[in-house]
Design goal:
The complex is a heterotrimer.
Chain A lengths: L7 H9 L2 H24 L3 H17 L1 H14 L3 E5 L2 H14 L4 E4 L3 H5 L2 H7 L3 E4 L2 H9 L15 H12 L7 H18 L2 E4 L3 E3 L4 E6 L3 H8 L2 E7 L3 E2 L2 H15 L7 E5 L13 E7 L3 H4 L15 H4 L2 H6 L10 H12 L6 H4 L6 H5 L6 H14 L5 H14 L2 H19 L4 E2 L6 H4 L4 E2 L6 H6 L10
Parallel strand pairs in A: 1-10, 2-3, 2-4, 4-7, 5-8, 7-10
Antiparallel strand pairs in A: 5-6, 6-9, 11-12
Helix pairs in contact in A: 3-12, 9-10, 16-19
Chain B lengths: L5 E4 L3 H6 L1 H13 L3 E3 L9 H5 L3 H14 L5 E4 L2 H14 L6 H11 E3 H8 L8 E9 L2 H7 L3 H8 L2 E6 L14 H4 L1 H18 L3 E4 L2 H13 L5 E4 H5 L15
Parallel strand pairs in B: 1-2, 1-3, 3-4, 5-6, 5-7, 7-8
Chain C lengths: L1 H13 L6 H9 L13 H11 L3 E5 L5 H12 L4 E4 L11 E3 L9 E4 L3 E3 L4 E5 L7 H4 L3 E7 L3 E2 L2 H10 L7 E5 L4 E2 L7 E2 L6 E7 L8
Parallel strand pairs in C: 1-12, 2-3, 2-4, 4-7, 5-8, 7-12
Antiparallel strand pairs in C: 5-6, 6-9, 10-11
Classes of the chains: A alpha/beta, B alpha/beta, C alpha/beta.
């Protein structure tokens, strides 16, 4: 999708003014946060599991070339095919090539953030294929013509009423108003699509180097129907999603659902190893894995390598107050919230994403819940550093920082300026003790009064304090 | 007394400019805990605004200045989780590559403490001599909570205050939306987060909101006062030091 | 070639060439022992509790010969027709209904399969695809009935991996780990069962020490 991160401020304002969004996000926040907290508290091993998960991911990144090659050989040994894609265009070309060769018409899709990242749906539809998203959330936003607003709950920004309207417009018939009826309606509509599907495209939560297995972890079973009933199964996955062995998979299964949706486990963990085998009564005739780099290898060996540990659980956005206020669309690209604010500038460039690293209070809650302990606030600060070095900081802010630094390095001047400010601001505050508007401080006073200072600075009062006689204690 | 530790008070920018009473409350609490308190006059800012804005060079310059000014003290203590987290967590990282300043920053970090955590964890204070007749909600500032592990210490001391009834917030770990320069760069988002926090305060039934960081408190008080709320906002230290009758942040005064 | 391009970019970033063979062999021999979730509950009890906590149902069945009666009871309880896709290894039993070994078609209501193991850790069954177990039986019918011998319940995922590795031919095309019926929370985070996969999953827990896969 076209990166719209530069419109962050406008989109955030719109989002804040949207009452439906506020309701939807409020529900999500409560649900995800509380459930995760309960499960984390109930599992004595949880923190140790997080440490181990971090270490395994680091180990993989240090040996990524080896594990990718091992994975590729194992897939091929199982009769599957591996395709390497340096960027989004190569990934699209590979998939379009497969679809063309097998003369596909209908393509079903399980949830895949990489497919969003490489703009796959538009490319497929432009070639005339019928593309059906089958994850209920993805299906809802496909009907709405919107991108996902959350990496694991793509339609989390929609209220039930909005879904009712979308379904009625798309399916006709009576307007379904209960969640049960809406889910049943989608089930019936999508059943038909699975059975007509030529190519099924899913993501991959984990790629197991040892066995050449790709794994999806889901609740709905749509990914399974997608890949089982299609003639061809294509997995799209980032190159960093490799884990060495099945033993490592167990580790991640223990933390993924707990961190993501606040469940002990998701309903389905599906390990796919190659295509249909002799004697099999079902399953795809072809099995392809598209390994997508698209900027990931650039992150290796630098200050952002830790970001490649991400397992796409969404805990960071579930716990992010800014995400909770503005929702995912404000971020303007595929990945929202804290992980998106790190990834988007790295994938799409610092210049077109200036707000993302800054639209964060550095409160650190994301890091405190990240199952693989990615230091997200540090990375956002590092992106600010790179913005500053590349001259991307707004000029007014840059000048202000310069003036402030000049004074702060000169205690006499700094304290003089503070004494002056204390008096002026106290005067402006008057008896009320607060200032409602202040030139150049609109950023503060748009939403809040400025509490007036007490009148003199602490340092001057301290110097003027009556000296206590030295008393023995 | 020779065994009384020599404490350098870190007079944070916001305390120095907006709320000297918090500085005096800090001194009072530190002295009551058996410390000798000094206030170096050559101090300015910890440099966090520069660090968080990505201007590492400026942050390093100010970090070196702070390291130098506070080098002789047994402890550096400040009434702010945010500034003290900068000294403790960020300075060693900022100056890590500097063979001279790196070790000095490490040494300073090890001696740096947020006021209330220092009182409880280092000085073993379990209770204070103070009274405050009010229902008090405590705002856990994020840098204190997650940067320095400050959670139980202020609750312990507040619960020892005579007449004080503490009201726990429903979601005490969520950010109030201050975030340093964030609050002026993204005012509508910051305002929404303040409103969410203040709604939590309102449903807690508190008549007083306290916290350990003046940044959050100025932001929350400013929003409360804009809404005409009577809730009084104080720094935790003011209540603990029996200075709870000071006019609240953003409240009017007599003189 | 993108493959070489990507690998060389990775090696450049890591500041080294391809790993020497001994280092590669050491990595391939790596078999980590990660922390497992410790619990002391009885395996069968743990499996049942956890599986039920995810809206799965369990009925205990004394021996293989009792399976048809147990299925009949389940069908009666849910008003299911006398037709099912029943995996081949179970086809020899006198089910008393019309059945075929799969795959499951669009109108399939009931699928009956075995499984390789139950995993007590989080209450899951593990199935392996093959001629004896078409994957569609797990996902297409509204009702999935799984025969699980109690003796096949293992403690942790790791124990199940060992079983998978021990199979002739190693991993099957498709390994499914299933914890209860299909569910979604995609509309206002309200949990709704039966999103795309089965609306109900019912385990017939075989007490007798016999294999369900035949």
């Amino acid at each position: 999708m076209i990166n719209q991160s530069l419109k962050f401020k406008d989109k955030a304002r719109e989002a804040l003014a949207d009452p439906h969004l506020r309701v939807a996000l409020g529900k999500a926040r409560g649900s995800f946060v509380n459930k995760r907290a309960e499960l984390a508290a109930a599992l004595p091993e949880f923190e140790r599991l997080r440490d181990e998960a971090r270490d395994v991911k680091n180990h993989v990144l240090e040996n990524l070339d080896h594990y990718l090659e091992r994975f590729a050989s194992a897939v091929e040994a199982a009769g599957g095919q591996v395709h390497w894609a340096s960027d989004a265009a190569e990934a699209r070309a590979v998939i379009l090539g497969i679809c063309e060769r097998v003369q596909a018409r209908t393509i079903t899709k399980g949830k895949s953030m990489v497919s969003e990242e490489i703009d796959l749906n538009d490319a497929l539809e432009a070639r005339g294929y019928t593309v059906v998203e089958t994850d209920l959330g993805e299906y809802i936003i496909q009907l709405a013509g919107e991108p996902p607003s959350h990496i694991i709950a793509p339609a989390v920004h929609k209220t039930k009423d909005q879904v009712s309207d979308l379904f009625q417009a798309a399916h006709g018939g009576s307007r379904k108003t209960t969640v049960a009826d809406l889910v049943t309606e989608a089930r019936l509509v999508l059943r038909d699509k699975y059975f007509r599907s030529d190519v099924g495209i899913t993501g991959g939560n984990f790629l197991v180097a040892e066995t050449g297995t790709s794994i999806i972890v889901t609740n709905e079973g749509n990914g399974d129907l997608t890949q089982t009933l299609s003639r061809v199964h294509i997995v799209t996955s980032g190159i960093e999603r490799i884990v060495p062995t099945l033993e490592d998979v167990s580790l991640f299964l223990r933390i993924l659902a707990r961190s993501a949706t606040g469940q002990e486990t998701e309903t389905y963990t599906t390990l796919s190893t190659g295509p249909r085998r002799p004697g099999d009564l079902d399953g795809p005739e072809e099995f392809h894995v598209v390994l997508v780099d698209n900027g990931r290898s650039r992150m290796l060996g630098g200050p952002f390598q830790d970001m490649l540990r991400c397992i796409r659980c969404g805990a960071c956005m579930n716990h992010c107050p800014v995400y909770g206020a503005v929702g995912g669309h404000a971020y303007g690209w595929v990945y929202p919230g804290p992980m998106g604010s790190v990834l988007t500038p790295l994938f799409e460039g610092l210049d077109g994403t200036r707000d993302l690293p800054n639209a964060c209070t550095l409160n650190g809650r994301c890091q405190s819940v990240c199952p693989v302990r990615i230091p997200l606030p540090e990375m956002l600060r590092e992106l600010r550093h790179q913005q500053h070095q590349q001259g991307l900081m707004p000029p007014a802010q840059r000048r202000g920082l310069g003036v402030w630094r000049f004074a702060a390095e000169r205690p006499g001047l700094y304290q003089f300026a503070n004494r002056l400010a204390a008096r002026v601001l106290k005067g402006l505050g008057g008896r009320g003790g607060r200032i409602r508007t202040l030139p150049l401080a609109g950023g503060w006073t748009e939403f809040r009064d400025l509490p007036a200072p007490q009148g003199k600075t602490f340092l001057e009062l301290w110097q003027a304090r009556p000296q206590k006689p030295e008393e023995p204690r | 007394m020779s065994d009384a530790p020599r404490v350098g008070l870190f007079a944070t920018c916001l305390m120095n400019l907006f709320r000297p009473s918090v500085g005096f409350a800090s001194v009072k609490l530190l002295e009551a805990a058996g410390c000798r308190v000094e206030v170096p006059l050559a101090q300015t800012c910890c440099g966090q605004p520069a660090y968080n804005s990505g201007d590492y060079a400026a942050a390093q310059a100010l970090a070196r200045q702070v390291v130098e000014v506070f080098e002789g003290f047994d402890y550096v203590v400040g009434p702010s989780g945010s500034c003290m987290s900068t000294l403790r967590n960020d300075y060693p990282r900022l100056l890590a590559d500097d063979p001279i300043w790196g070790p000095r920053a490490q040494a300073l970090a090890a001696r740096s403490h947020e006021l209330i955590a220092f009182l409880v964890d280092v000085r073993g204070v379990q209770a204070v001599e103070a009274a405050y007749p009010g229902r008090v909600a405590l705002h856990d500032s994020c840098s204190g909570l997650r940067g320095l592990g400050i959670k139980q210490q202020p609750r312990l001391l507040l619960d020892s205050v005579d007449g004080l009834k503490r009201c726990e917030l429903a979601d005490p770990e969520v950010c109030c939306g201050f975030g340093g320069t964030f609050c002026v760069k993204y005012p509508p988002i910051s305002g929404r987060l303040a409103d969410d926090k203040l709604a939590d305060v309102a449903s807690s039934g508190a008549d007083t909101l306290v916290g350990g960081d003046l940044g959050c408190l100025l932001h929350l008080a400013g929003r409360l006062k804009r809404q005409g709320s009577p809730v009084k906002v104080l720094h935790t230290a003011e209540i603990l030091a029996q200075m709870g009758d000071t006019p609240g942040i953003g409240d009017g005064h007599e003189d | 070639m993108p493959r070489e391009q990507i690998l060389s970019r990775i090696r450049q970033a890591l500041g080294r060439d391809a790993l020497p063979p001994e280092a590669a062999a050491a990595l391939d021999a790596r078999r980590p022992a990660h922390t497992r979730i410790s619990y002391s509950d009885d395996l069968v009890e743990r499996f049942i509790t956890r599986f039920q906590s995810r809206a799965g149902t369990v009925a205990r069945v004394a021996c293989r010969a009792d399976l048809p009666a147990a299925l009949a009871a389940y069908r009666a309880e849910h008003g299911l027709p006398a037709r099912a896709a029943i995996a081949a290894p179970l086809a020899d039993l006198p089910w008393g209904l019309e059945h075929h070994p799969g795959p499951a078609g669009q109108e399939e209501v009931l699928g009956v399969t075995g499984c390789l193991a139950g995993i007590a850790e989080m209450g899951s069954i593990l199935t392996v695809s093959g001629p004896a177990h078409p994957t569609t039986l797990n996902f297409v019918p509204d009702y999935h009935v799984v025969v699980l011998p109690a003796a096949h319940i293992v403690r942790h995922y790791e124990d199940a991996w060992a079983l998978l590795r021990a199979r002739p031919g190693g991993l099957p095309r498709c390994t499914n780990i299933i914890s209860g019926p299909s569910r979604t929370g995609d509309v206002e985070l309200t949990i709704q069962l039966g999103a795309h996969g089965p609306r109900r999953v019912h385990v017939l827990l075989l007490e007798a020490p016999e294999s369900a896969e035949g």
